[in-house]
Amino acid sequence: MVDIASRVYNHNFKIDPIVRSLIDTDFYKLLMCQSVFRNKPDTTVVFSLINRSTKVRLADLIDEGELREQLDHVRSLSLSRGESTWLRGNTFYGKRQMFRSDFMQWFENLRLPPYHLEKVDGQYELTFEGAWPEVMMWEIPALAVLMELRSRAVLKGMGRFELQVLYARAMTRIWEKIERLRQLEHLRIADFGTRRRHGFLWQDWCVQAMQEGLGRKFTGTSNCRIAMRRDIEAIGTNAHELPMVYSALADSDAELAQAPYQVLADWHEEHDGNLRIMLPDTYGTEGFLKRAPDWLASWTGIRIDSGDPATGAETAIRWWKERGEDPSKKLVIFSDGLDVDTIEQLYARFHGRVKVSFGWGTLLTNDFRGLVPEDGLAPFSLVCKAISANGRPTVKLSDNPNKAMGPADEIARYKRVFGVGDQTARDVVV
Question: Global pTM?
Fold first, then answer.
């Protein structure tokens, strides 16, 4: 097992790049990229880093030269032969050759496009512009680089023993969480922690701890590189990016109203089984389900990623019943800001009523709260989102208005088109 504390103490860029591979990314990015490559390859998008936790002044913490060095390294990466073979030949969700030959040929030749970086008021403005299939692949590595450089900056100057004790405490914390989760007899839980991890080595350690501590209750990881190295399932479906860009491309209010369903119609053509998971909260879960076409009721399940998770699950259960579906045969994946207390509560409430699964993210792979002075390693909310498509702004409403993004006038328009009324704000921790 890697001695993480020693590796942190002896950081050297040449042996410790933050992003080691183009598949050091979430599985759903590859699935979405293939869909975009097929359906919208010529769309021009802009992605931008957004720090929701403005009190964390990244430009004051992270050296710009070091950040550029890491980003430039990411641009030098390409698929290795072994990675290509794994993607081409492995079985994902029971399906061989999930990735088509034309997509794989494109991916094998991919180098990530240029970035634009500047400092503004203690924050980094980091943007990427170009063809959607290429630019979208920057999201996860960009976040991983910023998150780990922040960790390195905070830990810089700590001694060997201090680091050993820090990681021993963090490991103990994770193991105590795993011991609690072990008590949930029919638990199904996966690692969703790539985008806001403390670091690659730490995520890899957390995955191994979950493997040993939870056995079959641990269903896999969203991180493709770790899934390949540890011979476990790669987990993922789709994200808000698809409806955000499709909606921005709509030429009328009528087209806008149908855009989220067009996303899933395109997705339906490519995938079946567990990949038929709805993510309905981009423009409000209630309205999405109310206007959803009948064929969506037969899909496998739903992912709940904002708002009150119990309310979201109850809404889905009610909707399935109204559509003549048996909720006990449907999958509900909870994935928003989870920690053990919430997982236990949701499991107790919904186990047996639906098939319950959890995507455990930041508070698995980046829970160092209270372990360094001034809580300098506390998790914070950093995202990298599509902000425009073919020159038009994107919008996200969410079930939590604190996660909304886009120009005010467009947010108002989207609320009108999608019938979004009053919403309950919830703190955005991660």
Answer: 0.95
